[in-house]
């Protein structure tokens, strides 16, 4: 009787697992609309003296992410924004100016360090640059400008001071 009960319990357990295994395929699939021409970016920047760092991401659907400080060293983002069509045109121009597909994997020895991963048409291009690089400096300035929007919105929501009266 014990074997029959054990067999019955294992069958009941297996039957209970079947719906759980099927659950992930039941929901709607997340579809990302390609707004960047199949370009995605991960950009980590570290100052030469290691006192500042930033991490930026852009996904193919135009979702921008950024963080700074300790969070950036973990390659995590805290701020998210959707890039406008004008931002995406600028992003495309700046990213292509880096010549990411033909870059050497590691260049430079001193100075600010930029670690870049670009996914283009499902191919990954990764490279690191230490020191000045005009195209990467311009790309970082663009990313920093987008990241600063989180503060712009807060500042613009504040009341303006009136005239002082004594």
Summarize the structure.
The chain has helices spanning 2-22, 70-73, 85-97, 134-147, 149-156, and strands at 39-46, 53-58, 63-68, 79-82, 106-107, 113-120, 123-130.
Q: What does this entry look like structurally?
A:
The chain is α+β, with helices and mostly antiparallel strands and 166 residues long. Helix content is 36%, strand content 25%. It has a seven-stranded mixed sheet.
Enumerate the strands of the largest sheet in spatial order, edge to edge or round the barrel: 4-3-2-1-6-7-5
Nearest-integer average pLDDT = 87
Structural class by secondary-structure content: alpha+beta
The helix fraction, in percent, is: 25-40%
DSSP strand tally: 7
Query: Would you give the CATH topology?
Result: Mago nashi protein
* First-residue to last-residue Cα separation: 95 Å
Oligomer: single chain
CATH architecture: 2-Layer Sandwich
Helices and strands, in order, run as HEEEHEHEEEHH
Low-confidence stretches: 14-23
Strand count, sense and closure of the main sheet?
Answer: 7 strands, mixed
CATH homologous superfamily identity? Mago nashi
Contiguous helical run count: 5
When the domains are counted, the total is 1
CATH class: Alpha Beta
Report strand %: 25-35%
